[in-house]
Amino acid sequence: MAGKGPLTGTPALKIFLDEVEQLPAERQYGRVSSVLGMLVEVAGLDRVLSIGGRCDVIARGGRRVPCEAVGFRHGRALLLPFGSLQGVGLGCKAELTVAEPTVRPTDAWLGRVVNALGEPIDGKGPLPQGRDAYPLRAAPPPAHGRGRVGGKIDLGVRAINTFLTCCRGQRMGIFAGSGVGKSVLLSMLARYTAADVNVIGLIGERGREVQEWLEDELGPEGLARSVVVVATSDEPPPTRRQAAYLTMALSEYFRDRGRDVLCLMDSVTRFAMALREIGLAAGEPPASKGYTPSVFGELPQVLERAGPGTDKGSITGLFTVLVEGDDHNEPVADAVRGILDGHIVLERGIAERGRYPAINLLRSISRTMPACNSKAENELITQARRLLSTYEDMGELIRIGAYKAGSDPQVDQAIHYNPRLEAFLGQDKSERAGIEDGYAQLAAALDMPWQTGAATTEGNADAGANEAGGEASAQPAQQKPRPARRKARRNGGGGE
Asked: Of 22, 31, 29, 78, which Cα lies nearest the Cα of 50?
């Protein structure tokens, strides 16, 4: 029947045949020989089970507890559960299940909320299953086969669009301590982005806040074009880890259909903590701050899955990093910063002043800038950064009144423009700001001339092009640059 005619072309039949092929010819069982904390030792499956393989431990009462193999010791498989071990004891059966977990998403998953196993948790009924099976632990695209990052992507947040311009296929980290506004910033990005699809992974989130975030922050508009994967902080470490894998697998599904995907993961730190718990339970020795060596090997495997694809689609990744004790040099933050294509630093002191999003622009960077900008845009951003840096250097003297006006023209200029820059960088969560409008507003705040259309929402055709190509694409915005720049410099408003 599998080879006859058009019946095999129907999605339902193909899914059924694929599932039949995955069924083992015979059922294989082991027995629980030890339970210690979260770790379950099973005897009898060590020759057929491999790392990452799955078992169902049948608890007393018939409840099945899905588990994953994380190691082997003395001829026994070491399993970690995806659920509660309540009712699991010595002698309980452990049945071998599918070797490689997969997910079968469709476009009908948009607007839905699922758990780490791909099951709906929003009360809207079952999820349709697609034809193609996507492995949860896929390898990143080969470096020689994937495309280059594309043009600018409008994220709807003024400070990021202008000072930290992000390109399609770029991967950025959002680094912040707790309570500094990461979740609100993510919701703004999900609602206002120009990407086709959002895939949002809430890893280790507080269970109380999930529904509030979905309804109040993301809202119906943001949810309609999003798939949200949720694994709360009370769930076992393998579940929190798998939520990150599922987030990337869903992003890859939409990317392979030519979509520009915005992948938001909150947070990489809680994913790393789940990896640490798994490694320690399996007997791996701790390294830096208790993190096991496998954590730092696993992080690039996940983060590298974001980026340009081998065809038209792309995954633009924004990953939050919860820095412990506001230490931006702690091990996970340091490792992630070296993998990604830029970082956005949220600072508690700025949030305490009441400016949101609390982005410290002087500590943040986008590695695709300035190659994706025109010359006029780069001059505008350079002047604004110079003013912010000058004010930051002299900030303490200015605040205590020790600086005397007129002592330094550059400091006087920074003091004059600082209130305008602060107002520009602040943005209410209900406000959307486009790229072109952002550049025009920044130029107006700095009293610099600006030509409408100088900021191109798509930037260069390829953000990795050399500077000559970038300047060539921006020539229409530079027809009358020199007199305007000389006048701006005479007025103390900027320039080179």
From this structure: 78
